[in-house]
Write a structure and sequence with these properties.
It is elongated and about 75 Å long. Helix 2 packs across helix 3, helix 4 packs parallel to helix 5 and helix 4 runs antiparallel to helix 6. The chain has a two-stranded parallel sheet with strand order 1-2. By secondary structure, the protein is mainly alpha-helical. It starts with 5 loop residues before the first strand and ends in a 15-residue tail after the last helix.
Length: 175
């Protein structure tokens, strides 16, 4: 029986789901960069006319003649760690952005400005003492009130929440 090899264009992007399904099923899968399939299409047709059948043919031709394509490996625990790390980085950046915004608003509301090293708890204590005089200060206080719960929530979550990732099932999914 001849060895079967699947070629998926964009296996790290839009084709990731299909490539992972095939890799999980134990198939031999390679990722074909879209730039290579586009080059094959251009050389074969003399233009860049795209059709689904033509794209499939050009991806297959690239996979047939190029032996340096990267194999698609089944995602594992390292992928989960990468996803969790990226998520945490996103949350930290967002929390920092909101805290900086809150600091800027409080700086304009408080005589002498807000202290550096602002935290959600410090901001809550500072906001209790704010007595706006002008409509502009009322607007600033309202903005600070919308920023504070976000900061407090992220601070609390970062202290207590540990993500739980499901372990892979040993049984195949029902069809």
């Amino acid at each position: 029986m001849p060895e079967r090899r699947f070629a998926v264009e964009g296996a790290g992007g839009l084709g990731r789901s299909l490539a992972q399904q095939l890799a999980t099923a134990g198939e031999n899968v390679v990722g074909v960069p879209s730039s290579l399939s586009a080059r094959a299409r251009l050389l074969a047709t003399g233009g860049d006319r795209k059709t689904d059948a033509g794209d499939a043919l050009h991806v297959a031709q690239v996979a047939l003649f190029r032996h340096d394509l990267h194999p698609v490996l089944q995602e594992d625990q390292t992928t989960i760690l990468r996803l969790l790390t990226e998520r945490r980085d996103d949350l930290v950046h967002e929390r920092t952005r909101v805290l900086n915004r809150l600091h800027a608003v409080l700086r304009d509301l408080l005589p002498g400005g807000a202290p550096t090293g602002l935290s959600a708890d410090k901001a809550a204590a500072l906001m209790k003492g704010i007595r706006p005089i002008t409509a502009t200060d009322n607007c600033r206080r309202d903005i600070a009130r919308t920023c504070w719960p976000t900061c407090a929530d992220w601070t609390a979550r970062s202290r207590t929440t540990k993500p739980k990732c499901a372990r892979p099932s040993l049984r195949p999914a029902p069809r």
